[in-house]
Hints:
The chain is built from 15 helices and 15 strands.
Amino acid sequence: MTASETRPLTATRSFPPGFLWGAATAAYQIEGAAAEDGRTPSIWDTFSHTPGKVFEGHTGDVAVDHYHRFREDVGIMSELGLNAYRFSVSWSRVQPTGRGPAVQKGLDFYRALVDELLAAGIAPALTLYHWDLPQELEDAGGWPERSTAERFAEYAGILADALGDRVTRWTTLNEPWCSAFLGYGSGVHAPGRTDPVDSLRAAHHLNLGHGLAVQALRSALPADRQIAVSLNLHEVRPLTESAEDRDAARRIDAVGNRIWLGPMLEGAYPEDLLADTAHLTDWSFVRDGDAAAARQQLDLLAINYYTPTVVSHVPEGSEKPQDDGHGNSEHSPWPGADSVAFHRAPGERTAMGWPVDASALYDLLRRVSAAYPDLPLVISENGAAYEDEVAEDGSVHDPERAAYVHAHLEAVHRALADGVDVRGYFLWSLLDNFEWAYGYAKRFGAVRVDYDTLERTPKSSARWYARVARSGELHVPYSD
Ligand code: IFM
């Protein structure tokens, strides 16, 4: 029996002193100002302006105008008592073509944001890359090409020189699984390509880019800076305990999780991944020394978690379930896993259709910490979209979102009680924002944004989260 299993069901769970209570966003999802101060298009500008790619043709041209309203947004974070904020830098704003010297105005924006955060006592956590590759680099081949990894390291060096004096927490990539497999495999994300071999090449160059960027950061940053990568690790569950379903789970664990953890933390690709994809590629794009270069000392592993991944084996040629979660589409984001079907667990779901299951977060934290016991963890994203209703007075009462966060914080606390070293929690997301292919149709924010007026209104879940963040205490069970 684990320590957490003997805990009282009604209690106050105290989080450790120094725990980070944050919220997260990403540049293209909130900034807007797409053509201002020297910024040029990223792959997401191109993709969102391509008819049929994003819900109702929505784009990030204006988004929630954070570029002009960042002071107000930092003020909201401060009111909510957050002690950390995770944001990403738009590569196209800082280095528009992905090469050459930086644009001073781009750097100035991030310096002003960071200074505003520091003045409010909020620790900035900077992510270098959250999916918005400069379009010129995509035109030169994008992540399937090795040169993109090299450009990424140069960009990391530029940011380290510009902001290393004031930013303590650095993250290289956000969810490289999405960049590689939704961007180049299923094509539902920018740049919208659908070639399984390109998606594997992209995965490798993201791994390499991560390693080269960590080297660039380490050589430019003061020694006490923390460096992490944010992975959307999949908690993969076989539909049944049959050997076939367990093998399906192994395959998805390989191409969903170990494709990153292998090179980044162990310096090698898993043998079973290479075997599962051998009919697609011989992986000759991996040069000697690449996997070792991808493995760099990290200070933290940052995990994004939303829902578990349930899989079964399907005999070749047979039908897969229609309601699939993320995987049964015509162009699969899972190379080498044609014999795997994806399922959604019954029960409560968010507005994304994602089943709510906090136990999978607990299992994931236990599993990762058992595999890498010396590496502290942080939850760099967790949260939920719901159909918010706005009352006549403009307020939003969203107890489902607070209950979702409560359940996941309880799972984090349970892992802590069992000795897992979790350093913080970043709610996705601070603000309603551009939810990629769903445009503005899905709202993840703790703070509502009126997309006509851009007015911000904290939802009741934001007030609830603020109480937890300020006290460092979670009352169990959840009450509104
Ligand atoms: O909005 C995204 C974010 O950009 C990356 N992680 C998942 C979130 C919700 O889909």
